[in-house]
Design goal:
Length: 72
Amino acid sequence: MNKRLIRQGRIIDPANELDTIGDVYIADGKILAINTTLDDFSPDEVINADKLIVCPGFIDLSTRLREPGQNP
């Protein structure tokens, strides 16, 4: 099981009207908890997100999609 803990990031989730600093607990690509301590959770990776934004759905808006070999 792949477990990650994202610590102390600014969590922004417009769908749930959430804008707070806190922790996100993730296991196998699924969010288990936000700002709720899970006592039996031992992460494989801890990501320090201090002064960073944690938000679903960010994408690169300047992506260029072209057929292979096409010049810009």
